[in-house]
Amino acid sequence: MAQKNERNQEASVYIGNLDDRVTDELIWELMVQAGPVVNVHLPKDRVTQSTQGYGFCEFQSAEDADYAVKVMNMVKLYGKPMRVNKSANDRRLMDVGAKLFIGNLDPDVDEKLLFDTFAAFGPVVQNPKIARDASSGNSKGFAFVAYATFEAADAAIEAMNGQYLANKPVSVNYAFKKDAKGERHGSAAERLLAAQARKNDPTSVAPPTSAPGGW
Q1: Closest C-alpha among 55, 139, 141 to residue 90
Q2: What are 91-105's pLDDT values in tens digits?
């Protein structure tokens, strides 16, 4: 597993939310199922030599990297759903405040199902977060999903509010802001700031994808 100085960004994926016990070898064995692997690198703490919760995997081709994102994202390692993104795209996504609250979740809904469902409407900034009981790990019945654009969040609300996920109809709306009592994300001010940021740096946000047909 010799490291190369120049990594092919288009053929590389970023892997995040990793458990401390995950090793380079484990990631290699997992990712090679998606395609031929050139290199795996999990940055380690210089003192403890433990991994820092993220890493990179380079494939022989961009097509293999794309396939890895599709099949490996949200797969659980040691009980934690790992985040798999194309490295080149990961830096362009920014949190603009397009954060949704998903309520009335069926207990069988996990992070991978949420990601697969909601990523259809546009780029998701971070792992969907299901609120779980600290002791049992069971879902509390609600979750949060953050998009890179308000257009994607609007499309998700329009398509998914009241739709069934597993065996229960979910409620989808903008989440309440942490610092403002009773005020939800998605305000005109937030949208204006996001539009300004995109105008100043057109590469900062990936373009939203259209909602899937038939929903």
Answers
A1: 55
A2: 445 667 899 999 999
